[in-house]
Specification:
- By secondary structure, the protein is an alpha/beta fold.
- The protein has two domains: 193 residues, Rossmann fold (3-Layer(aba) Sandwich), CATH 3.40.50; 98 residues, Roll (Methionyl-tRNA Fmet Formyltransferase, Chain A, domain 2).
- Helices cover 25% and strands 28% of the residues.
- The protein has a seven-stranded mixed β-sheet.
- Helix 1 packs parallel to helix 6.
- The N and C termini lie far apart (57 Å).
């Protein structure tokens, strides 16, 4: 069995590695073009491209997938697998040969660009992975396999890795038994949709509840970034937890140099880790030891 793999993210790379380790013949990989990254805006390849080249797999990068259909149809493959690729696939590709997708949610819940982050922000205790046929409508294809996963307070990157590993194992079973699987049609009326998060979504406000604050940091601190605005300063937050201090007003800091705590809508939260003004990762306690004046200010509501 020969596989054409389409993916661009870390999630994709883990799924691809699972396929190879399971003995599948990946004849070609298609991923997004190199993109500018970092302060120098240096062109940087996707993790999938780097991994594939290391394994000696042919890699193609298309800015616009649909403009390369003639070339794609010349690739020798039996099934195509999509995992966080990042482009809409045209119907003539989907109709050419079987195409399956690995999606990190329990579809039809959380269709779209940010299923893992949306699940964390919403405080879901159960998430999962769906393997489906790819359809023209985003994440609406018939379900081939689905497994749930119980979360345990993971931050985004950790949960992404766990779901990718689960997805890889599920994919192996689906591909080996594809012709014997009876697909299940999704109920569109139960569908929920996600969007791509932006930097502005990372702002933490004291009017939020404990769980809203903690979950937002778990979901966004490792990607878009999470932060508090304090008067004229912005502090980037890396880790946050519920605090036992209960007598603080919204936005008020605890007057204690051992705990970097501020009040919120239903209690208080403690900043475990943040970035110093120099960009160094430090504990919340170390931050206030070097910036005592912050305790006299307030977090934006």
């Amino acid at each position: 069995m020969k596989i054409l793999f389409l993916g661009s993210s870390k999630f994709s790379k883990i799924v691809l590695e699972s396929l190879i380790n399971a003995g599948f013949n990946v004849s070609c990989v298609i991923t997004q073009p190199d993109k500018p990254s970092g302060r120098g805006h240096k062109l940087t390849p996707t993790e999938v491209k780097v991994f594939s080249q290391q394994r000696g797999i042919e890699v193609k990068t298309f800015d616009k997938f649909r403009q390369h259909m003639d070339e794609i149809k010349q690739i020798d493959y039996d099934y195509s697998v999509v995992a966080s690729y990042g482009q809409i696939l045209p119907n003539d590709f989907l109709e050419f040969k079987p195409c399956v997708n690995v999606h990190p949610s329990l579809l039809p819940k959380y269709r779209g660009a940010s299923p893992i982050q949306s699940s964390i922000i919403n405080g879901d205790k159960i998430t999962g992975v769906t393997i489906m046929k790819v359809a023209q409508k985003v994440d609406a294809g018939d379900i081939l396999a689905q497994e749930s996963f119980e979360t345990n307070g993971e931050y985004y990157l950790e949960l992404e890795e766990k779901l990718a590993i689960l997805g890889g194992k599920m994919l192996e079973k689906v591909l080996k038994n594809y012709k014997n699987i009876n697909p299940v049609v999704q109920n569109d009326e139960e569908a929920t949709f996600t969007r791509k998060f932006e930097k502005v979504d990372g702002e933490l406000k004291s009017s939020m509840t404990i769980h809203q604050l903690v979950n937002r940091v778990r979901a966004l601190s490792q990607t878009e970034g999470t932060y508090i605005n304090v008067d004229d300063a912005t502090i980037k937050i890396l880790k946050l937890r519920e605090s036992t201090f209960t007598d603080l007003k919204e936005g008020e800091f605890l007057q204690d140099k051992k705990h970097f705590v501020f009040g919120c809508a239903d209690g208080s939260v403690e900043i475990e880790e943040c970035l110093s003004p120099a960009g160094k990762r430090i504990t919340g306690r170390d931050y206030i030891n070097g910036h005592n004046d912050i305790l006299t200010k307030r977090v934006k509501c």
